[in-house]
Specification:
280 residues; alpha/beta; Metallo-beta-lactamase, Chain A; 7-stranded mixed sheet; 28% helix; 24% strand; globular; binds zinc ion; Metallo-B-lactamas; RibonucZ/Hydroxyglut_hydro; zinc
Length: 280
């Protein structure tokens, strides 16, 4: 089996969708899993994919939008209740505050478990939070992978992540509009997990509804279409591109056709629980 793989845990968006869980994926390096984003349903998806949440000791947040963090409280407390006693969380500025708020929200619950039940609080109240500098850079992580980040274009501070081990690499774009620095950053990656949230069937391009039109024009400044995703993959010369972050209305066939017309490498329309390995 390959030393480096990614399992798509959630390929959805902020809109609840039975077929697509909230945004999350797990990168596995040799046998170390690293969770990237933690959308709604992540704990269940991890378990369905054969991972115990207790075994995930590293979590990277691309950004702190609700759809990428909805599952965090469950992951934090659930993983700890299964025996995890250490955790490192890497994310943009604001990650410490977010984590602290979650602890505060469950203050009484945590006091009961650590006090009355006597469960050691290691892995819960001593989480190692690494906040990324705005310009990105490399993350000193203690994992076998070399982890680097760059800022991308979204409406809150958002980072793309590159995981590299033995000259094999997986890049995750994060939520982003097209940006040249991502092309450089993803150069010759084996796998690029790419935001392709905007699709022609998503919300009315030609809608008369002013509100929808407004949302549509905003989305174009914050996400990619499959064609834009393909252009990034093509210019970067990656081997495989896995598109993700789909709205419930996405038409997978169209998404695939639109991307395949531009990118000549392997095009994958991401599906929940799909595992993709880097070739040896
Ligand atoms: Zn976002
Ligand atoms: Zn998102």
């Amino acid at each position: 089996m390959s030393n480096l793989s990614v399992t798509m845990l959630g390929t959805g968006s902020p809109k609840p969708n039975l077929e697509r869980s909230g945004p999350a994926q797990v990168i596995t390096i040799v046998d170390m899993p690293i969770l990237v984003d933690c959308g709604e349903g992540t704990v269940r998806q991890l378990m369905s994919a054969g991972y115990s949440p207790a075994d995930i000791e590293y979590l990277c947040f691309t950004h702190l939008h609700s759809d990428h963090v909805f599952g965090y409280a469950h992951f934090l407390l659930g993983g700890w209740s299964l025996g995890r006693n250490k955790l490192t969380v890497i994310g943009p500025k604001g990650t410490k505050r977010f984590h602290q708020k979650v602890l505060e929200m469950f203050e009484e619950d945590i006091a009961y478990r650590t006090g009355d039940l006597g469960i050691p609080s290691d892995g819960l109240t001593d989480v190692n939070i690494i906040e990324l500098e705005d310009e990105g850079g490399s993350v000193i992580s203690g994992t076998p992978a070399n982890i680097t980040t760059i800022p991308v274009i979204h409406n809150v501070k958002t980072f793309a992540f590159r995981f590299e081990v033995d000259s094999k690499s997986i890049v995750i774009s994060g939520d982003t509009a097209p940006i040249d620095s991502l092309v450089e950053f993803a150069k010759e990656a084996d796998i690029l997990i790419q935001d392709a949230a905007i699709n022609s069937s998503s919300i009315g391009t030609n809608s008369q509804d002013e509100n929808l039109k407004n949302i549509w024009s905003k989305l174009q400044l914050e996400h990619c279409t499959p064609a834009q995703a393909a252009e990034i993959a093509s210019k970067a010369g990656v081997k495989k591109m896995v598109m993700t972050h789909f709205l419930p209305s996405a038409n997978e066939e169209k998404v695939s056709q639109e991307a395949s017309a531009i990118f000549k490498g392997e095009v994958i329309v991401g599906e929940d629980l799909q595992r993709i390995s880097v070739a040896e």
